[in-house]
Amino acid sequence: MSEKVNMEDSSKSTNSRRDFLKKGSALGIIAASGAAVLAGNQGTKTSGEKIKVLTTDGKMIEVDKPVDNCEIQPCTPAKGEAARQGIPGRSFVMVIDLAKCKNARKCVEGCQKGHDLLPDQEFMKVHLMKDNPEAEPYWFPKNCFHCDNPPCVKVCPVGATFKRTDNIVLVDADACIGCKFCVSACPYSARIFNWTDKESYSDNDPNYSPETSVPGQHGTVSKCDFCPDRAREGKLPDCATSCPMGAIYFGDKNEDAVTNGEETLRFKQLIKDRIGYRYLEELGTEPNVYYLPPIDRMFPYERGFSSLSEEQQEVMKNSIKSK
Amino acid sequence: MDSNATTNKLLDENKSFLDKPGTGWMLKVVALVVIFCVGLYALFLQVTKGHLITGMRDHVVWGVYIVNFVFILGLSYAGALIAGIFHLGRVRWAKPIQRILKLITVFSLIIGPFYILLCLGRPERLFYLFLHPRIQSPIIWDVIAIVTDLIFCTVYMYFTYIKDFALLRDNSARLNMPNWRAKLYKFLAVGYQNTPKQAKLLNQALDILAAIIIPTTIIAYSLLAWLFGMNLKVGWNSSIFAPFFVLSAVYSGVALLILIMWIYRKTQKLEKVFTDNHFVYLGFALMVLSLFYGYFYFSEYITDWYNMQKTYGLLWGKYLDFSQYGIPFVTSIFLITFLPAIIIGIPWFRTVKSIVFTSVAVLVGLWLARYLMIVPVLETPYLPIQDVRSDWVHYSATWIEWSLSLAGIALFVLFFVLMSKLAPIIPVAEMEEDLEYEEEVKLDVSLKPKGA
Amino acid sequence: MMMNRINQYGNTKIYVSLLLLISCVLFYAPTPAYGQKQSRTRLKAYYEKLPNNDKKISIILTQGKGKKTRGVSDAEIFLTTFDADSAMELATLSTDSLGEAVLFIEANYTFPKNEDGYSVIDLKYPGNDSLRSAKKKIEFLDLNIDLTLDIIDSVKYVEVLTYEIASDGNRTPISEVGINFGVERLYSTLYLEEVDTDDDGVAIMEFPNDIPGDSIGMITVVVMLEDHDDYGTVTKSSDISWGTPVDYSIVSNGRSLFGDSAPLWMIISVAVILSGAWFNFLLAVYKVYRIKKLA
Questions:
Q1: From start to end of chain C, where are the E strands?
Q2: B37 touching C, CB under 8 A?
Q3: Which has the closest alpha carbon to A100: A302, A301, A306, A312?
Q4: What pLDDT, in 10s, does the model give residues A253-292?
Q5: Sequence-distant (≥ 6) Cβ neighbours of residue B439 within 8 angstroms
Q6: C-alpha distances out from residue C271 to B66, B147, B245, C264, C278, Å
Q7: Integer Cα distance of A153 and A131 in angstroms
């Protein structure tokens, strides 16, 4: 590959923005060369499942079904030092369209499922906001903003949380001493502490990757990870795929494209046209989550209360009242 | 050492540390150890069951522990700072209180850092701080500062003991000391004989240490202030924090000094050493510091209040709401900024007891002020906390945190109790040099006239 | 790899119904079949022609209505095709856990055609005790897309020619089909423009100059006819270095507050302050050491 990438040789082959081999149809490779090629195809896992193929001469054959898309090599979540580097050439960015959010809370649930979180642990929170006494309230989904000038990373005494080249800020639970300084340093309250031990938690688990945040560890800090493990498989983060309204767009700023799974838009044009903004821009944290202002909303905000308990509704209503 | 008559007399007056531990002393030790063990049990629970049994939650991530940490380290830095200044300024009347200051410094410097360890989710990974330190983190600044300060202050304290150890070594036979004491003092005295050359060397060493400890403590406590100041948090992100912290440290240190002086004066009958004048001088220092503190407090809060930025508005709402932090807020302001001026400033109220009472009130007020500087701020992030769990919204310390706080105090007292069996609580040999000067420059202030 | 991609982006319907299905599977509490009448089932099928001319039939079998819709797993679907006068069995597929099944057909396989020239596939699910049978018939014509990338007077053109090949080998251009032009991105295809083919079966798009590519500007241009009544979904793609190169050499955070190494001034200050303090400290200790020596 003619990529100019300043990394070690071992990773050079994995650095390709796009594995051009894939441009020949996967099926072409599978059908013509049989399962052997596929099995030897590095990074592509095969499942026990088969897919059926009708050959040119009308015969029906079965070949192994590749288990996942591998958009970025390696497909498996990075661990250790590799997890601190970031996926080369990527610059992940999220755009949340506040006009579409109706507080269905599917993003919260999808994220909790994807990251093995308890119901009260939320990487993605949905706040009810009211910008001034006259303005209509609106729902405000908020995850980690993966800032380019991250206050949390600055204060970490042991380098357990770090900023990667692909914009992502991750926590390595194996390195975290649980001092919680990052929790208090984050102006967006994006970080949570694992206050209680859980059966699924485990220390120094060989399967653990900061990219997946699973399994968690008692007494350490965790937060939204932008799902780089899913990016490797070409999948959007859990929150984006769970949103029934398609309010959460995700993509690569270097590619100038964000998608909510249904439509794909040019990132710069979208932010330009819709006056996308970043929450508390004046703090200088340079977030990588953009919001599209809640104008021409698709629903009255009250509809969002239906997904909340009465107690929670009360809390929300009081919260916007006191402002 | 040439122990002349005055020194021997002074030593004889203060040789209660040589007494066999009585029942009272033993009871004190046992009681303190029990309180400490309750704290240990609480710690055991916290480690095994997780931090959820404390009042700490995702917003108020630190709570009472960090308040104690800041408060106790403040006492320590104050002790070192005041001792250093008195030493370099050759403040003669301050000589008897030098040892107490150094003991405060070292004991609180040992105890304080434990409170930050109690905040750690994974205390067993503490050594990561030394394996992968990030010099950009204020926590690493604190680690470096505390370790440096602890070493400097401990060594400084020991150096100030050398003359006394020499004196005790020379008097071991005369005072019928047990063999282990004689040996111990001989070892600790490092062969000091008060020859002119040795005296010069010791004085040089003490001067150097005092001179470096003053900036060290100022830097160390400023770094501690930046532990908060470096957060993008409304209420913390303030440039006045470092000098304000240093000032409140000195303030709390003077208050504690008065209290401890009074306890020793009462329990060991040291009226001749810790004279009324000491209380008056330190009381006046307390009053001046209270005015300075009021000045800082006012500058810190008036600018926030006047501009009343949105999140500040929420914070101020909590400070001024009597169902939330109103009562402690007003109490702490009264105790810290007004009470000393009233009680010490007006001669009518100025007695040793009232000065001591004011000191205690100031200590309480300063602790409250630290609490108010930390907890309500953590409860007021930019984004509203919209949580149905009330303990997630409002911090309230549990018995775990309180018992560990008490354990810290118990340990502090225990250290003093144990130390009072090792050597005199006043630097005997140092004072001997002073007793030769009968005339002292006295301030034209005095206590409330007797019978007035 | 590729098949999932096309599935994902070319056929949004499948994707949407998939999402619905997932949520339904999550919230649906199955009820025992006994004593109840058979549930209705629904069979859907989509025809797709992939960039390498392989063909793909995607099938989904569902039961229930509205929000309770969910896939039927492990169901056998029988596929039959027809030529002008007879039926022939094409394949038997079984559905996966989501009720989906996929059949790939190699590019050179020749589908039988009916008298109108359409290829016809009948899909049948026979049903069982609790589920009713379902049927579906799809008909399609084989559309070819030729994709040409050309630069004329330094303007980049993506040109598409659509045509059918008759049995005698003659090519008939297909007019008025909407062709989507796009570029492949990490998660999806970014569509830039839709152009209808003219009478010659040609659609042309001027390719923008500001589409980021990889480090040498490589991009994958995708053209697609989406879910057409006669032609189904047909996709073609081609790689070319028409994008703007994006420098993606790894830039480390350097010396920064949030990087791995601290700013120099910080290290120097700490070093100066600490060494100054410790030098004086050691000096003081040395003096006491000399006291001991003098003893």
A1: 41-49, 55-63, 70-71, 76-82, 87-94, 100-105, 119-125, 134-140, 144-152, 155-165, 171-173, 178-184, 189-196, 202-206, 219-228, 232-240
A2: no
A3: A301
A4: 999 999 999 999 999 999 999 999 999 999 999 999 999 9
A5: none
A6: 28, 15, 24, 10, 10
A7: 29
pLDDT recorded at residue B13: 79
C263-292 residues touching A, CB cutoff 8 A: none
- Mean pLDDT score across all residues of chain A: 83
Tallying the residues shown for chain B, one arrives at 452
Residue pLDDT, tens place only, C201-227: 999 999 999 999 888 889 999 999 998
- Three-class HEC string of B339-368: HHHHHCCCHHHCCHHHHHHHHHHHHHHHHH
Mean pLDDT of C48-75: 87
Please provide residue A265's backbone torsions phi and psi, each rounded to the nearest 5 degrees.
-125, 155
Option in A44, A58, A71 nearest C186 (CB): A71
How far apart are the C-alpha atoms of B329 and B228, rounded to whole Å?
Answer: 19
Contacts of C283 in chain B (CB under 8 A): 208
B89-B90-B91 Cα angle (round to 5): 90
Q: How many CB atoms lie within 10 A of CB C163?
A: 18
Predicted confidence (pLDDT) per residue in B105-153, tens digit: 999 999 999 999 999 999 999 999 999 999 999 999 999 999 999 999 9
Of residues A179, A180, A182, the one with CA closest to residue A163: A182
Classify C36 in phi/psi space as left (phi over 0), alpha (psi -120 to 50) or beta. Answer: beta
The gap from C-alpha A150 to its chain's centroid, in whole angstroms, comes to 17
Interface probe with A: pick from C109, C248, C249, most Cβ of A within 10 Å: C248
The beta strands (E) that lie in C13-113 are given as 41-49, 55-63, 70-71, 76-82, 87-94, 100-105
Q: Which of A3, A38, A44, A52 has the most C C-beta neighbours within 10 Å, making it the best mutation to test the interface with C?
A: A52
A180–chain B Cβ distance below 8 A for any pair? yes
Token reading at C177: 């089909």
Q: With beta carbons less than 8 A apart as the criterion, state whether B66 and B40 touch.
A: no
Q: Nearest by CB to B198, which of C273, C277, C294?
A: C294
Alpha carbon of A179 to those of A138, A320, B57, C198: distances in Å? 34, 32, 13, 67
Q: What share of chain C is helix, strand, coil (3-state, %, to 5)?
A: 20, 40, 40
φ and ψ of B28, to 5 deg:
-55, -50
> Residue C134 pairs with which residues in a beta bridge?
C125
Residues of A in contact with C96 (CB under 8 A): 49
What distance in Å separates the CA atoms of residue B209 and residue B206, rounded to the nearest whole number?
5
User: Are C266 and B144 an interchain contact pair (Cβ–Cβ within 8 Å)?
Assistant: no
Q: How many CA atoms lie within 13 A of C220 on its CB side?
A: 21
| DSSP code for A20 | G
pLDDT tens, residue by residue, A2-51: 333 333 333 333 333 333 333 333 343 343 333 333 333 334 444 456 77
Burial class (CB in 10 A: 0-12, 13-18, 19+), C84: exposed
Taking alpha carbons only, the member of B371, B442, B439 closest to residue B405 is B371
Burial of residue B119 (CB within 10 Å: 0-12, 13-18, 19+) is buried
Please give the residue of chain A at the shortest CA–CA distance from C235.
A25
Q: What is the CA radius of gyration of chain A?
A: 22
- Which residues, 6+ apart, have CB-to-CB distance to C271 below 8 Å? none
Test B52 with A319 for CB contact under 8 angstroms: no
- Is residue B198 within 8 angstroms of chain C, CB to CB? yes
Q: Which two tokens stand for residue B370?
A: 């630290």
Residue A168 contacts residue A232 (beta carbons within 8 Å): no
A187 contacts in B (CB within 8 Å)? 232-233, 381-382
